[in-house]
């Protein structure tokens, strides 16, 4: 028995309680505090703000995986404190537990630098203004070298190279360069908005992304990040207190459509004793002592502001500027049009001859020129941006009115908004070609089509049906690799958040397959250089923003196949005819003709029905006509 107890004591050593080493402690802390390169940037920026810096420069390489360098002109670190700066739970921000309820700095835990130095190749250089030389400290994965004297300007410079080099599992979980830099840019933006009095610079791979001069006007910084279009529409609200997201939503209740949310920049200034900041390792959450007071204050303040604000939507239509055309210009355009028309009609020149010339003799001998047929090919029609092209409207044709057909008398393709050009057949030309009989249909509420089917009637949702048609066309083109793209003469530039811009750039290849060619245009601005010809009706800026929002929130969770399919759903919805849009009779007919060309015309891509049917028998039953 004694022997078995001794054996048990010796074999259970690994399960005994032990004191962890400083290295293991720091690695555990790094797992909480340092999630990705953006976490490092956040911690370093907050330290620079606490050091009373007036200028901070951030240099990033490879999305922060290879290099993060921050340089500030702050107070610097005392030479005797340099080693403590990378020691866990060593800080200059607090002294006692009571200080936790009076925190007035960005940081106070004293574990960020120690955690960063444990999982990177870390170098710190610092000099206080009164010192003649600086101090350099290097830490290689927790192994410290130094400190030693060095020459450097007043302030602090920290380099973090090869983040997670000694924890390959963590490094493997890093996302693409653009995604990681998007998160870095987001953290940079938050610090920049909260501290407009700082001069801030952000570079990526040697290229300046943001250079923000110091300003006392917050609106100036908002314009730099989000553009004048958004900044000039903000409603400035001031109060003694601020509060929470839910109060904001309540204040906007009834003012926004369901699913839409206000763009808000909320700045809180409260007494430190009213906030508990020690509830989250990265300080991403705080707790208010009395949140209800803040809630009610913000809600009432916003509502009062809205009552005094003109919230009417305004429609502004800029007058179209057209250059004045001279008589000579008009003639030149007419000549060019005639020449173009001749080239489109084979034999038009020989047909347009004087009746007394050779052409007239040939005609009299029985040599006639047939009227050219102009079936507007479906593939070509999809290159047109108007609804008629998208609805695949074919031009009604008329028989030749005589043995000769001139280019001018050719009706050409149908154009949206114009009646079909059907000419009456002349006595010499025989009977005109009959227009094919189409389904009898009418539009109600500019939303639904009511169709007489012979066996009853069918009510069709025009948007849902056209969305299904557009979806199947786009999907077929994508699968065949034949998406036709329209290059834009002037690229459409869209200002976005850093994360939305990164989401688009991360999926650049997938978007190119769909016909959307995007690229970075500097900062967080995205340029759209081409889009699918089938989507020329869609607002490109709105489409890009919606795609970016969707990709940022859910795109990374889907397979490539599902990702493409969901994007096709969205794009076809944006390009389809909308509810509330009045259709011409020709457009209604074209939409109905294409209905049966779909694999599943009964449902839109989102699963909603496209049509509801009421049979003749049901109508008779409802009106008591049975028997």
Kindly describe this structure:
By secondary structure, the chain is an alpha+beta fold. The longest helix is centred in the C-terminal third of the chain and has 19 residues. The strands form 4 sheets. Strands 5-4-3-6-2-1-7-8 form an 8-stranded mixed beta sheet, with helices on one face. A 4-stranded antiparallel beta sheet has the order 11-12-13-17. The protein is elongated. The termini are far apart. α3 packs parallel to α7, α10 packs parallel to α11 and α17 crosses α21. It contains 23 helices and 17 strands. Belongs to the DNA mismatch repair MutL/HexB family. Keywords: DNA damage, DNA repair. It comes from Durusdinium trenchii.
Give me some keywords for this one.
627 residues; eight-stranded mixed sheet; alpha+beta; 23 helices; 36% helix; four-stranded antiparallel sheet
Q: How would the blueprint of this fold be written?
A:
Blueprint (H helix, E strand, L loop, with lengths): L1 H10 L10 H12 L3 H14 L4 E7 L5 E6 L9 H4 L26 H7 L2 E7 L6 E7 L2 E8 L4 E7 L6 H5 L4 H18 L4 E6 L2 E6 L5 H9 L1 H4 L13 H7 L23 E2 L10 E2 L2 H17 L19 H18 L3 H4 L6 H7 L13 H4 L5 H4 L49 E5 L3 E5 L3 E6 H19 L4 E11 L2 H9 L1 H6 L3 E4 L4 E8 L7 H15 L5 H16 L9 H11 L15 E5 H7 L5
Parallel strand pairs: 1-7
Antiparallel strand pairs: 1-2, 2-6, 3-4, 3-6, 4-5, 7-8, 9-10, 11-12, 12-13, 13-17, 14-16, 15-16
Helix pairs in contact: 2-5, 3-7, 7-18, 10-11, 17-21, 18-20
């Amino acid at each position: 028995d004694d022997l078995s107890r001794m054996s048990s004591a010796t074999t259970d050593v690994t399960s005994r309680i032990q004191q962890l080493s400083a290295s293991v402690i720091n690695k555990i802390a790094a797992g909480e505090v340092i999630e990705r390169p953006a976490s490092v940037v956040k911690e370093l920026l907050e330290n620079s703000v606490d050091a009373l810096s007036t200028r901070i420069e951030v240099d990033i390489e490879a999305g922060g995986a290879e290099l993060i360098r921050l340089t500030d002109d702050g107070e610097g670190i005392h030479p005797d404190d340099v080693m403590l700066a990378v020691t866990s739970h060593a800080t200059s921000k607090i002294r006692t537990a009571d200080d936790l309820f009076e925190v007035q700095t960005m940081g106070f835990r004293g574990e960020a630098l120690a955690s960063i130095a444990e999982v990177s190749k870390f170098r710190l250089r610092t000099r206080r203004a009164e010192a003649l030389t600086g101090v350099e400290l290097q830490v290689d994965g927790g192994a410290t070298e130094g400190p030693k004297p060095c020459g450097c300007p007043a302030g602090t410079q920290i380099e973090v190279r090869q983040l997670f080099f000694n924890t390959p599992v963590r490094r493997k979980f890093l996302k693409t360069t653009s995604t990681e830099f998007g998160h870095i840019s987001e953290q940079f933006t938050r610090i920049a908005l909260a501290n407009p009095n700082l001069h801030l610079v952000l570079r990526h791979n040697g290229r300046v992304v943001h250079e923000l001069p110091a300003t006392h006007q917050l609106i100036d910084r908002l314009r730099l990040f989000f553009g004048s279009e958004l900044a000039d529409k903000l409603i400035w609200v001031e109060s003694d207190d601020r509060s929470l997201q839910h109060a904001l939503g309540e204040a906007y209740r009834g003012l926004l459509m369901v699913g839409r949310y206000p763009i808000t920049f909320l700045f809180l200034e409260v007494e430190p004793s009213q906030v508990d900041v020690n509830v989250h390792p990265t300080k991403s959450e705080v707790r208010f002592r009395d949140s209800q007071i803040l809630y009610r204050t913000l809600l009432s303040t916003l509502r009062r502001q809205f009552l005094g604000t003109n919230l009417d939507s305004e429609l502004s239509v800029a007058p179209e500027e057209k250059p004045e055309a001279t008589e000579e210009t008009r003639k030149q355009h007419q000549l060019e049009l005639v020449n173009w028309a001749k080239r489109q009609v084979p034999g038009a020149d020989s047909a347009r001859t004087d009746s007394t010339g050779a052409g007239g003799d040939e005609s009299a001998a029985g040599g006639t020129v047939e009227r050219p047929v102009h079936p507007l090919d479906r593939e070509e029609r999809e290159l047109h941006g108007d609804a008629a092209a998208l609805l695949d409207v074919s031009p009604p044709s008329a028989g030749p009115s005589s043995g000769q057909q001139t280019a001018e008398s050719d009706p050409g393709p149908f154009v949206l908004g114009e009646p079909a050009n059907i000419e009456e057949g002349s006595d010499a030309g025989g009977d005109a070609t009959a227009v094919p009989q189409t389904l009898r249909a009418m539009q109600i509420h500019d939303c639904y089509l009511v169709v007489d089917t012979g066996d009853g009637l069918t009510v069709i949702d025009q948007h849902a049906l056209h969305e299904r048609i557009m979806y199947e066309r786009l999907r077929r083109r994508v699968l065949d690799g034949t998406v036709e793209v329209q290059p834009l003469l002037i690229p459409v530039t869209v200002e976005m958040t850093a994360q939305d811009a990164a989401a688009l750039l991360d999926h650049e290849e997938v978007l190119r397959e769909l016909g959307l060619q995007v690229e970075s245009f500097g900062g967080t601005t995205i340029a759209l250089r081409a889009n699918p010809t089938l989507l020329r009706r869609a607002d490109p800026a709105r489409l890009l923003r919606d795609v970016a929002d969707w990709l940022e929130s859910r795109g990374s969770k889907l397979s490539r196949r599902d990702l493409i399919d969901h994007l096709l759903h969205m794009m076809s919805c944006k390009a389809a005819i909308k509810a509330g849009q009045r259709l011409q009779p020709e457009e209604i007919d074209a939409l109905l003709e294409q209905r049966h060309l779909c694999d599943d015309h009964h449902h839109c891509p989102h699963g909603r029905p496209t049509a509801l049917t009421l049979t003749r028998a049901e109508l008779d039953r409802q009106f008591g006509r049975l028997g």
